[in-house]
Amino acid sequence: ASIARALAFDADLLLMDEPFGALDEIVRDHLNEQLLELWGRTNKTICFVTHSIPEAVYLSTRIVVMSPRPGRVSDIIESTLPRERPLDIRETPEFLAIAARVRDGLRAGHSYDD
């Protein structure tokens, strides 16, 4: 409903803070595909917050990796994936390399010492 409202007002920017976080993977995959389709039709700027690395890589042209407390930008990754992205792109070496870079950036800010 909030996405429809933002589109009805013709907002230039859509801010989405973990909108699919509580959904199961199948529904999340479907909505991710729908969001990419919407983005392709409207060319709106979408700022999408997620804790899911695959979701971040699948949806993004640019990924901003944040460090934990204090929250700071630790990396900005420009995606080299094509704009048209089938779900099975997640199995490609290029996708996996971007996901690994995101994961490395997230791990760098955490301490797991006992």
Protein described:
By secondary structure, the protein is of the alpha+beta class. The chain has one domain: Rossmann fold (3-Layer(aba) Sandwich). 42% of the residues lie in helices and 18% in strands. The protein is built from four helices and four strands, in the order αβαβαββα. A two-stranded parallel ribbon has the order 1-2. Strands 3-4 form a two-stranded antiparallel sheet. A hairpin with a 6-residue loop joins β3 and β4. The mean pLDDT is 90.
What is the topological layout?
Layout: H1 2-8, E1 13-17, H2 25-42, E2 45-49, H3 53-59, E3 62-66, E4 73-78, H4 93-108
Parallel strand pairs: 1-2
Antiparallel strand pairs: 3-4
Helix pairs in contact: 3-4
Mean pLDDT, to the nearest integer, reads 90
Give the H and E element order.
Answer: HEHEHEEH
> Unreliable runs, pLDDT <50, ≥5 residues?
none
Give me the Rg, rounded: 15 Å
The counted number of beta strands is 4
Task: Give the class from helix and strand content and strand pairing.
Answer: alpha+beta
Short description, anyone?
With 114 residues, the protein is α+β, with helices and mostly antiparallel strands. Helix content is 42%, strand content 18%. The longest helix has 18 residues, at 25-42.
